[in-house]
Specification:
The protein contains 10 helices and 9 strands. The protein is α/β, with parallel strands linked by helices and 332 residues long. The relative contact order is 0.22.
Length: 332
């Protein structure tokens, strides 16, 4: 019998766990962020390669101190050192990130406003609530920063040692297996919904307010499994208190190198990860002089192209719209 999901705010993570997540996203990502060099962040006034002549706004639609905010501030610091102008981080929170994202969309396209975007703000939000912006057409994609997959973790009492065994168990017991997530309509929730859709099974979703709380109930056996972020579960997995069946990303995660992806474990084509990226207002046009401006500061392009990021956003909007619609998912 599953107890009612706890609703109190999850406790803050230990600093070491938070740093682990940031390192996983960021140190490979700082180099990627330098891909602004090849991005659509220039304006006609850059023709004389004087850009940037003043501070650049960097709008982060999440709370100060959150993992996304820390990533943004690390990136801003490193870029400011290279460009000789500060990137001023402005936290514009609310609406699950939609308020800050809307402000980016409405900003002047002069190369002096950037925004942090992620899967939730630009691929999921439009399908669960009305938005003041179009996540595809109102932004100029700049560069991908990185990806954070989830881990499919089971209580040791669940008689499944692989993804295929779990699918077989779920088919034999429709709606009898419960999976936890960080909350309704979160990407962790959608990870489970996508898993159900692709495996043609029926599970019961139990939403929490954060992975920390859901992990506690998973350890106690109040839920059978969860799709959750890796840091809060890693210690328990390594101690044998939880069983990691698979990770949700396209490739194996370096912190769990022996754990397969869901795709390689038998559900071909499955992929779900929280990506973070940099975007600019849509009218910000490309300008080759941006390349010269960055090169002057010793910056070399190492990021995903703007076109690749734009294609990913467009594909994910449709992907998650299909999942959300078929599962009847709402924010509350």
């Amino acid at each position: 019998m599953i107890e009612t999901a706890r609703t109190e705010q999850a406790a803050s993570r230990p600093a070491s766990i938070m740093r682990g997540r940031i390192v996983a996203i960021t140190w490979g990502a700082l180099a990627l962020m330098i891909g602004l060099l090849s991005a659509d962040v220039a304006h006609a006034q850059l023709a004389d390669a004087r850009w940037p002549e003043r501070p650049i706004r960097f709008i982060v639609p999440f709370t100060a101190g959150s993992s996304s905010d820390i990533v943004a501030r690390l990136v801003a610091q490193k870029l400011a050192e290279r460009l000789g102008q500060p990137l001023v981080v402005e936290n514009r929170v609310g609406g699950g990130g939609s308020i800050g994202s809307g402000e980016v969309a409405r900003a002047d396209a002069d190369g002096y406003t950037l925004g942090l975007a992620n899967t939730s703000t630009h691929a999921v939000a439009a399908s669960v609530a009305p938005l003041s912006y179009d996540p595809v057409n109102d932004f100029a994609p700049v560069s991908m920063l990185g990806h954070s997959p989830f881990v499919l973790a089971l209580h040791p009492g669940v008689p499944a040692q692989s993804v295929q065994e779990l699918i077989a168990l779920a088919r034999a017991k429709p709606r009898m297996l419960n999976y936890a997530s960080a909350g309704p309509a979160t990407l962790a929730h959608l990870s489970g919904a996508l898993f159900e859709k692709m495996a043609k099974i029926e599970l019961t979703h139990v939403p929490y307010r954060g992975t920390a709380q859901s992990t506690l109930d998973l350890l106690e056996g109040r839920v059978e499994m969860q799709f959750g972020t890796i840091p809060p579960t890693l210690t328990h997995i390594r101690a044998g208190k939880l069983r990691a069946l698979a990770v949700t990303g396209a490739v194996r995660n370096p912190t769990l190198p022996d754990v397969p992806t869901i795709a390689e474990a038998g559900l071909a084509g499955y992929e779900c990860s929280l990506w973070q990226a940099i975007v600019a207002p849509a009218a910000t046009p490309p300008d080759p002089d941006v390349r010269a401006a960055f090169a002057k500061h010793g910056v070399e392009p190492q990021a995903s192209s703007a076109a690749a990021l734009g294609a990913r956003i467009h594909a994910d909007v449709q992907k998650w719209h299909d999942v959300i619609t078929s599962a009847g998912i709402h924010e509350n």
